[in-house]
Amino acid sequence: MRITSRGPVDEWPLAVQVVDEVLRSRWSTASVERSAEIPPADRVIGTDTTSGGAASEGRDRAAALLTVRGPDGLFEHLVQVEDRGVVPGRIRRSNVGTAARAAGLTGRFGALTAAGTALLRPAHAPEDLLVVECRTRDVVTRRWRAWFKEGSALVVEDGVGHSATGVIPHGQLSRQLLARFGVDPSWVIEDQEPATVPLAALDDRDGPCPSEVGWMQAAWPVRDWHTVRGWGERRQFAVLSIVVPGIGVFDREIDGDTVTMRPSSPAAFARDVVRFLTVDRRDLA
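Structure (tokenized):
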């Protein structure tokens, strides 16, 4: 196997780190998982419709990196009780409070344990905070947040009713995030023509496809399109793509009441994600 990486010389050290960590983690075994008794079928956050086993296997490997699982709002609960010695009983006995104790992050009286304190440490005075959202029919179905500090990142993923949290090396973030999108390398239609459709029809897609372009006619009845948005507190570059499961990855351009979708490629999408995670973090203030 040969990997070729090209880019500006000042980004090379981080690019090498990303490639090295991806190769190392590709064959790594899953970490020991601390869970709040979520049924196995629900351990992968969110529900996606993708073609092929590669995307699903990638999400499973990515999920293994986040070793604390629980209901939605687990991270916010830990922040809420961080400075408390004794937490009110109604909060301790809540669904999220029970999950925090089951995962070993809080103790008998609801205060953080040493493990809970260590988990939140990167969120204190972080070097940067990155946020990526996936929207389906204009509803946020997954939110991915990462607080960077001293070569590690606290990652929090929120899905529909579930969350996953863990501290992982910075170099593994690209692999983790790409796997979560479930983009299959076989979705290559980048050489085909763009398609323009009414913006108002894009979310529901209940009627017939308004375009005669072949790939759009195939994509139109697919249930869940994912609009991927990413931004950071200290960086200008962002990711904005549309992922149509089983079809491909697209760039979009809005002009008045129409939107033009241009076929991209999984490779270009991957480059955008890697750049998003490895560009120089500059203080824009």
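The first strand starts at residue 68 and ends at 71. Residues 156 and 185 are 26 Å apart (CA to CA).
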